[in-house]
Specification:
CATH architecture of the largest domain: 3-Layer(aba) Sandwich
Number of helices: 8
Shape: elongated
Helix content: 25-40%
CATH topology of the largest domain: Rossmann fold
Number of domains: 2
Strand order of the largest sheet: 2-1-3-4-5
Radius of gyration: 21 Å
Strand content: 25-35%
Distance between the termini: 61 Å
Largest sheet: 5 strands, parallel
Number of strands: 15
CATH superfamily of the largest domain: Response regulator
């Protein structure tokens, strides 16, 4: 295997399926497995961390399916994708979505090799502009068609649980993370503010600052200060600065 090996990530909720893919990929001198994920939440984290060239993405997974994983990715970094599915209907959707390829389970070695060789050839040629354009178009359509989030999964030490988005007072950016303010608690999740904003109900969550989103249901009043500045007062009495460029956007909601 060369130093310029193509970096691949396996995403599938079935351990046996991941093992089978891993063995098949290891037969190639062109591709190296850099990680695995067993669900959509892990998938998003691993993709952002590993920045793979190629992803083998199972469509049917609990909590977050493969298509939703795509909507959680940075649109400026979308690796090549080979969808995995056990159902013809999903395979057809993947094909219509202009994925690089799809593998209908159970697939054999020749079928896998054909898909992998196609991916390697495209990556090595660096002729990815058309594929990236089509994939961005798919992600944009998925974001438009998808209903707003009602719950968010957060992790706390050795457990994960769901929060109702309606309970969030406001959200702050923290680099590649965001901080969810829920009551007196704070929860850190790995996602950019812009990405999360696109998944929240636009009639409830409003950007009020370049680094802050507020839940209108938790806004008590907006106070006008000197020099054209404003403060947002939440129902718990806490105050947030309203950015000048976001002022009209917020006031229009009232």
């Amino acid at each position: 295997m060369t130093d310029a090996a193509i970096r691949a990530l396996i995403i599938d909720d079935e351990p046996v399926a991941r093992g089978y893919l891993r063995d098949l990929i290891h037969e190639s001198e062109e591709v190296r497995v850099v990680g695995e994920a067993a669900n959509g939440i892990e998938a998003v984290e691993r993709i952002k961390k590993e920045r793979p060239d190629l992803i083998f993405l199972d469509i049917q997974m609990p909590e977050m399916d493969g298509f939703e994983v795509l909507t959680r990715l940075d649109p400026d970094f979308l690796p090549l994708i080979i969808f995995l599915t056990a159902h013809d209907t999903y395979a057809l959707q993947a094909f219509e979505a202009k994925a690089l390829d799809y593998l209908l389970k159970p697939f054999d070695r020749p079928r896998f090799r054909k898909a992998l060789d196609k991916a390697v050839e495209l990556i090595r040629s660096r002729n990815l502009a058309d594929f990236e354009k089509r994939l961005r178009s798919l992600v944009s359509r998925l974001n438009t068609d998808r209903p707003p989030l009602k719950r968010l999964m957060v992790r706390s030490r050795d457990r994960a649980y769901f929060l109702r988005t309606g309970d969030i007072r406001f959200i702050e950016a923290a680099g590649n993370y965001v901080v969810l303010h829920v009551g007196e608690d704070e929860h850190l999740i790995r996602e950019t503010l812009s990405s999360l904003e696109g998944r929240l109900a636009p009639d409830t969550f409003v950007r009020v600052h370049r680094s802050r989103i507020v839940n209108l249901d938790h806004v008590r009043e907006v106070i006008s200060l000197e020099k054209g500045e404003y403060r947002i007062v939440l129902t718990d009495g806490s105050q947030l600065k309203l950015g000048r460029s976001y002022r009209n956007n917020l006031l229009a909601r009232f």
